[in-house]
Specification:
By secondary structure, the protein is of the alpha/beta class. The chain has helices at 7-13, 20-29, 41-50, 61-64, 76-88, 108-122, 136-144, 160-163, 174-188, 200-209, 230-233, 251-268; strands at residues 33-37, 54-57, 94-98, 126-130, 149-154, 192-196, 214-217, 225-228. Bound molecules: 3-methyl-2-oxobutanoic acid.
């Protein structure tokens, strides 16, 4: 909810914490919301000081921290320490804890229990869960306990096997299901909804019909905010990155070059130099 050109200055000058009402106001005032994932205190601190509005401690930590192929294996116990580290490191940004696969689907009791764990053990400000119509009950129950919920519809990675892989959702007649999901999560009390991998036109329709803000991950420009997985965004990801990602840095190459230089310096005695050694 900041002018991108002045984000860092604004963040320093105005440390007013981002709250759910800021998401609502951003939509009302046509100000774009910015989000990134984060899984640790280093990136959380940097992104927060730069003026990011929210940080998602995503279950994409499964891939980016724990080295799994999909998000399915990661557990609540895996995510809690990462979420705590992120929440401890922000002054302004709103921190969203992602509820992992298998931690909320069976009942609203299970969903509330998991949400309580995240809120009590990490100091996150909200939780996120995947699914539309089929998760209405869970969202309603968590919200009724005073916990803000960010919903997540369109392509939902926890269902990737059910969906037949990374398939764009909401195309053609699929837009009706997308709209039904969007209305269901809004009616259940979600304060915002992530739209992942949906066509720009479908996302525009959802954004127009909903009162709550839409956050796009591969949903084109006609949404209320954008969210990216930071490791994709910063050029860490190996191999194919999704079409919708714009790479803002090339950190894999930078780090790789740095470690190569370090190895060479140690091998040929260039490091440590006299300036790195203590006098007798
Ligand atoms: O875990 C994650 O990174 C996510 C985003 C892709 C929305 O859920």
């Amino acid at each position: 909810m900041t002018d991108p050109t002045a984000a860092a200055a604004a963040a320093q000058a105005n440390l007013k914490k981002v709250r759910t009402r800021h998401f609502q106001n951003a939509k009302k005032n046509g100000v774009k919301i910015t989000g990134l994932t984060s899984y640790d205190q280093l990136t959380a601190g940097i992104f927060d000081r730069a003026g990011i509005d929210f940080l998602l401690v995503g279950d994409s930590a499964a891939n980016n921290v724990y080295g799994h192929e999909t998000t399915l294996p990661v557990t609540v116990d895996d995510l809690i320490p990462l979420t705590r580290a992120v929440a401890n490191s922000v002054s302004r940004a709103f921190v969203v804890a992602d509820m992992p696969f298998g931690s909320y689907e069976t009942s609203s009791d299970e969903a509330l229990h998991t949400a309580f764990r995240f809120m009590k053990e990490t100091q996150a400000h909200a939780v996120k869960l995947e699914g539309g119509v089929r998760r209405e009950e869970q969202i309603r129950r968590i919200v009724s306990a005073g916990i803000p919920v960010m919903a997540h519809i369109g392509f939902t990675p926890q269902s990737e096997h059910g969906l037949g892989g990374h398939v764009i959702q909401g195309r053609g007649a699929g837009v009706e299901q997308l709209l039904a999901d969007a209305h269901a999560v809004e009616d259940a009390g979600a304060f915002a909804v992530v739209l992942e991998m949906v066509p720009a036109g479908a996302a525009a329709r959802v954004t127009q019909e909903l009162r709550i803000p839409t956050i796009g991950v591969g949903a084109g420009p006609h949404v209320n905010g954008q969210l990216l997985v930071w490791t994709d965004w910063a050029g860490f990801t190996k191999g194919r990155i999704p079409k919708f990602v714009k790479q803002y840095a090339n950190l894999r190459k930078n780090l790789s070059d740095a470690v190569t230089a370090y190895i060479a310096d140690v091998a040929d005695g260039a490091y440590p130099g006299p300036e790195h050694a203590y006098d007798d």
